[in-house]
Design the sequence.
C-alpha cells in the first residue's frame, strides 16, 4: 500500500482523484500540510501532495522547510502546465513531495500517480533495474 | 445593482507612483538580497537551502525564475494593469529575483564583504529601476484605456461588480470544502437569508453584513475543528519542527519596521495593494469592500506565512497581511507610515505566539487553506463574468467573444495563464486591439 498525504488547497478533490487512480493500491489521507510533511519525514507516509493557487507558493512551502528542496518537486506552476517526462524523472530521482497549481489538478495528479504506481510496480527503489530485461 | 461607491478615491499623480514603487522596489530587492524577507512563499522556504550551501547559485536562479515568472506575468501584472493599482505580486516577485541575483547574504563567507556591499547597492538600484519602470507601464495602460472611444476607464466597474457580489459566498464555500456540500448549503442559505434581512433592515451595504456573519460562523467552526492529536502527534512543537528563525527575524526588526512603513504608506496612497479583489475594489473606489477582502485574505494567508517565516528566519516581505489593512484605514500618510512600521514589527514579534495558537486550534490551518481555495474559486467566476462584461462595454459583441474565446482556449492549452487572470489578460489585449482598430479606422467611432 502506498501511503499518500494530501495538504494544501483542494485537498479533498486531489484525494478522491488519487484514490480513484490508485485502485486499491494507495491509501490517500487529507491532512494539514505541516502534519503531512512531518509524517513523510518520519517515514510514516510515502508521498506528500500539495496544491496552491499558483503551484509555486504555498504548495510546497512547508515541505521544503521540513524535507529540504532536494526531495520536493514542483510539477506545475502558474504559466507552466505539468509535463509527463519531468514528473517521471522526478519520481525516478526519488522526489517524495509534489506541488502543483490548483488549475492543473486534473492534469498533474494523474501524471504523478502514474509515475508513482509504475515505480511501485518496478519494486520502488530498484529503479536502476530495467523492468524488461531485469538487468542493470 | 451598483455597489455604493465610496467617494474616497484619490488619484496619485505619476511622479508619486514612480517614487513609491521605486522605493518599495528598492526595499524589496534589498530585503531579498540580505535574506531578511522574501515575498514568494516557496522561495522563502528555499532561501536557507542556498544560504546553507545545499543549492548552487545557478540552481537557485533557474528555480527561482521557474517558480516566479508565470505568477509575475500571468497574475501580478494583469491585475495591476487592469486596475491601475499595483498588486504586490507584480512588484515583489520581481524584486525577489533581482535581490537574490546580486551577491548577498546567500553567498558563503562573512556576512559583509566588499562584493556583498556592492551587491546590495546593485540590488537597491535595480529594484528601484524596476519599480519605476512598472509605474510607467501602469500609466501607459491606464492612458490606453482612457483613450478608448467607448467604455473608457470606468469600465473597471463592470469587473468589480461580480467580484464583490460573490464575496458573500466565500464563507459558505470554504465550509463546504471542509465539511461537505450539506453544511455548505446550510450556511449558504443562512447567509442569503441574512442578506435579504439586512436589506429589509435598511442596510445600504448588505454584503458587508453577510460576509461578517458568514465569517463569524466559519471561524466558529474552524476554532472547534481539527483535533489536538492531529497536530501534536507529528507535532509542530517539540518534534523538530524548525522554529529557529525567531532569533534571526528579531535581529532584523529595525529594517522590518522600515519595510512596514513603506508598505503601509504605499497601501494608504492606493499605489500598492494585497490581493486582486481588493485591488479591483479600490480601482472603482469601494474602500470598505477592499478592507473586507484584505481582512479575509489575511486570515487565510497568515498561518502559512507565519509558519514559513518561523521555520526559515526569513520574514514575509508583506508581513502577515495586516499592514495593508492598517494603511487603508489610516487617516493620513504619516499615520499610515507609523502604523505600517508598528504593525509589521508586531507581526514579526508575534510569530511564535501565532504558531503556538495554531497548535491550540489546529482546525484553523485547514480553515485557512479552505478559505484560500474558496476565494480563488469565486475570484475565477467573478473575474470571468466581470471581464466578459467589461469587454462588452469596451466593444460590444467582439468583446464578449474575445474573453469567452480566451478563457476556453486557455483551458485547452492546459491553463498556462492562471484561471482567475485570463479574463483581465484578454481585456487588456482587447484594449490594445481596439486602439489599433480605431487608428486604422476599422471601428466606427462612437
Sequence:
Amino acid at each position: 500500500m502506498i501511503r499518500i498525504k494530501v495538504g494544501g488547497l483542494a485537498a479533498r478533490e486531489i484525494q478522491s482523484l488519487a484514490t480513484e487512480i490508485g485502485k486499491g493500491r494507495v491509501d490517500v489521507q487529507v491532512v494539514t500540510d505541516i502534519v503531512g510533511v512531518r509524517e513523510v519525514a518520519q517515514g510514516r507516509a510515502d508521498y506528500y501532495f500539495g496544491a496552491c493557487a499558483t503551484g509555486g507558493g504555498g504548495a510546497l512551502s512547508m515541505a521544503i522547510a521540513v524535507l529540504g528542496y532536494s526531495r520536493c518537486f514542483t510539477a506545475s506552476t502558474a504559466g507552466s502546465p505539468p509535463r509527463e517526462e519531468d514528473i517521471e524523472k522526478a519520481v525516478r530521482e526519488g522526489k517524495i513531495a509534489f506541488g502543483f497549481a490548483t488549475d492543473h489538478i486534473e492534469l498533474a495528479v494523474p501524471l504523478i500517480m502514474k509515475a508513482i504506481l509504475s515505480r511501485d510496480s518496478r519494486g520502488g527503489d530498484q529503479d536502476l533495474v530495467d523492468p524488461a530485461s531485469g538487468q542493470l | 445593482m451598483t455597489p455604493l461607491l465610496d467617494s474616497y478615491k484619490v488619484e496619485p499623480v505619476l511622479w508619486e507612483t514612480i517614487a513609491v514603487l521605486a522605493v518599495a522596489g528598492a526595499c524589496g530587492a534589498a530585503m531579498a538580497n540580505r535574506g531578511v524577507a522574501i515575498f514568494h512563499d516557496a522561495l522563502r522556504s528555499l532561501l536557507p537551502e542556498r544560504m546553507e550551501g545545499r543549492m548552487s547559485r545557478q540552481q537557485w536562479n533557474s528555480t527561482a525564475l521557474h517558480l516566479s515568472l508565470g505568477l509575475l506575468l500571468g497574475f501580478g501584472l494583469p491585475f495591476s494593469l487592469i486596475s491601475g493599482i499595483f498588486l504586490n505580486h507584480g512588484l515583489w516577485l520581481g524584486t525577489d529575483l533581482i535581490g537574490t541575483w546580486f551577491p548577498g547574504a546567500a553567498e558563503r563567507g562573512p556576512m559583509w564583504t566588499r562584493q556583498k556591499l556592492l551587491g546590495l547597492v546593485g540590488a537597491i538600484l535595480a529594484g528601484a529601476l524596476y519599480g519605476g519602470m512598472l509605474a510607467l507601464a501602469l500609466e501607459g495602460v491606464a492612458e490606453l484605456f482612457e483613450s478608448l472611444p467607448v467604455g473608457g476607464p470606468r469600465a473597471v466597474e463592470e469587473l468589480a461588480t461580480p467580484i464583490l457580489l460573490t464575496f458573500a459566498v466565500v464563507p459558505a464555500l470554504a465550509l463546504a470544502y471542509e465539511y461537505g456540500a450539506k453544511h455548505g448549503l446550510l450556511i449558504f442559505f443562512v447567509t442569503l437569508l441574512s442578506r435579504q434581512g439586512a436589506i429589509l433592515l435598511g442596510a445600504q451595504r448588505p454584503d458587508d453584513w453577510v460576509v461578517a456573519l458568514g465569517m463569524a460562523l466559519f471561524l466558529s467552526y474552524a476554532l472547534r475543528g481539527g483535533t489536538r492529536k492531529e497536530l501534536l502527534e507529528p507535532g509542530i512543537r517539540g518534534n523538530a519542527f524548525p522554529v529557529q528563525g525567531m532569533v534571526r527575524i528579531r535581529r532584523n526588526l529595525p529594517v522590518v519596521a522600515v519595510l512596514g512603513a513603506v508598505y503601509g504608506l504605499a497601501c494608504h496612497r492606493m499605489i500598492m495593494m494585497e490581493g486582486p479583489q481588493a485591488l479591483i475594489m479600490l480601482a472603482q473606489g469601494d474602500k470598505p469592500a477592499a478592507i473586507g477582502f484584505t481582512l479575509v485574505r489575511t486570515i487565510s494567508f497568515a498561518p502559512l506565512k507565519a509558519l514559513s517565516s518561523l521555520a526559515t528566519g526569513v520574514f514575509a516581505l508583506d508581513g502577515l497581511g495586516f499592514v495593508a489593512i492598517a494603511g487603508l484605514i489610516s487617516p493620513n500618510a504619516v499615520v499610515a507610515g507609523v502604523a505600517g512600521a508598528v504593525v509589521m514589527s508586531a507581526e514579526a514579534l508575534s510569530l511564535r505566539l501565532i504558531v503556538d495558537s495554531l497548535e491550540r486550534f489546529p482546525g484553523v490551518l485547514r480553515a485557512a487553506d479552505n478559505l484560500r481555495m474558496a476565494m480563488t474559486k469565486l475570484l475565477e467566476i467573478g473575474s470571468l463574468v466581470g471581464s466578459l462584461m467589461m469587454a462588452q462595454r469596451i466593444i460590444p459583441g467582439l468583446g464578449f467573444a474575445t474573453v469567452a474565446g480566451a478563457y476556453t482556449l486557455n483551458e485547452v492549452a492546459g491553463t498556462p495563464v492562471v484561471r482567475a487572470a485570463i479574463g483581465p489578460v484578454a481585456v487588456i489585449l482587447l484594449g490594445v486591439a481596439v486602439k489599433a482598430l480605431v487608428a486604422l479606422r476599422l471601428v466606427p467611432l462612437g
